[in-house]
């Protein structure tokens, strides 16, 4: 009889390489806040997307180089809270919601609190949750929708006060969806270690070229579609479970 498999705990200690990416993510979030306070909202929004790239790299680099640690896990969560919770909420408030008075800063707080709760729930369920799906909208994706709206609007010369209601709806929806039970595909089952066909590399190049054509529009549109995908994925799962129960009952 085989002995039960013991799950390895993250190593104690500090590894330089993955934590450099985490520090870069934290710096980008801080820079986004400073830029928003200075009125450079396009730079602030772009910094959020840079933070997303660095956040996606730190965990994967840690796994690929076998340098995961408990310190890195906690540091990553704190950096995510700044870059994807506090920074987008503050950017949106300074850009559009401040003119709505108390309602504006309350909605910004709902978004920030939603990000904090989302990260806390993720950390407590990381060992039991299905790795293929996220429960609730991931905080980086929520930040991308919020920051993407600011970026695309400033790119067209729009003023935040003119889009205050739209900004309020988007910010509130992103905050609520983070703590919802809607399922979102995690992309974690994509194998980065194995070999891939040459065509896959070509597709990656074409994706980068496509995004570079108009980064604000393409990034905002892509993450907005991803935000809506949670509804479709959840309804599809409910439909499949009903069909399975119906077949079992027959």
How are the SSEs placed, and which strands pair?
Elements: H1 16-37, H2 41-64, H3 70-95, H4 102-125, E1 133-135, H5 139-155, H6 164-178, E2 183-185, H7 198-213, H8 215-249
Antiparallel strand pairs: 1-2
Helix pairs in contact: 1-2, 1-3, 2-3, 2-5, 3-4, 3-5, 4-6, 5-6, 5-8
Please characterize this protein's 3D structure:
- The chain is built from 8 helices and 2 strands; from the N terminus they run H-H-H-H-E-H-H-E-H-H.
- The protein has 250 residues and is an all-alpha fold.
- The protein has one domain (16-249): CDP-alcohol phosphotransferase transmembrane (TM) domain (Four Helix Bundle (Hemerythrin (Met), subunit A)), CATH 1.20.120.
- It is globular.
Largest sheet: 2 strands, antiparallel
As for the CATH topology, it is: Four Helix Bundle (Hemerythrin (Met), subunit A)
Enumerate the strands of the largest sheet in spatial order, edge to edge or round the barrel. 1-2
Overall body shape: globular
The level of helicity is over 70%
> Can you name the CATH architecture?
Up-down Bundle
CATH homologous superfamily annotation: CDP-alcohol phosphotransferase transmembrane (TM) domain
Terminal Cα span:
38 Å
How many independent structural domains? 1
Q: Would you list the SSEs in sequence order as H and E?
A: HHHHEHHEHH
Q: Tell me the strand percentage band.
A: under 5%
What is the number of E strands?
2
* Structure class: mainly alpha
Would you tell me the overall average pLDDT? 87
CATH class: Mainly Alpha
Radius of gyration: 20 Å
pLDDT < 50 stretches: 1-7
Continuous helix count: 8
């Amino acid at each position: 009889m085989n002995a039960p498999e013991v799950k390895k705990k993250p190593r104690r200690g500090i590894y330089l390489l993955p934590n450099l990416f985490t520090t870069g993510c934290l710096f980008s979030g801080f820079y986004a806040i400073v830029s928003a306070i200075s009125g450079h909202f396009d730079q602030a929004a772009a910094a959020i997307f840079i933070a997303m790239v660095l956040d996606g790299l730190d965990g994967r680099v840690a796994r690929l180089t076998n340098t995961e640690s408990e310190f890195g896990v906690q540091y990553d969560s704190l950096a995510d809270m700044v870059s994807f919770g506090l920074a987008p909420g503050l950017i949106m408030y300074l850009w559009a919601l401040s003119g709505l008075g108390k309602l504006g800063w309350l909605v910004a707080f709902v978004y920030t609190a939603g990000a904090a709760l989302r990260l806390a729930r993720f950390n407590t369920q990381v060992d039991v949750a299905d790795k293929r799906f996220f429960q609730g909208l991931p905080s980086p994706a929520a930040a991308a929708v919020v920051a993407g709206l600011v970026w695309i609007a400033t790119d067209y010369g729009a003023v935040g006060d003119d889009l205050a209601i739209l900004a309020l709806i988007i910010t509130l929806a992103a905050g609520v969806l983070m703590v919802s039970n809607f399922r979102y595909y995690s992309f974690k089952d994509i194998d980065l270690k194995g070999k891939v066909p040459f065509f896959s590399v070509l597709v990656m190049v074409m994706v980068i070229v496509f995004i570079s054509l108009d980064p604000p529009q393409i990034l905002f549109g892509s993450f907005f579609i991803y935000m809506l995908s949670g509804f479709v994925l959840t309804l599809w799962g409910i439909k499949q479970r009903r069909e399975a129960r119906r077949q079992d009952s027959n």
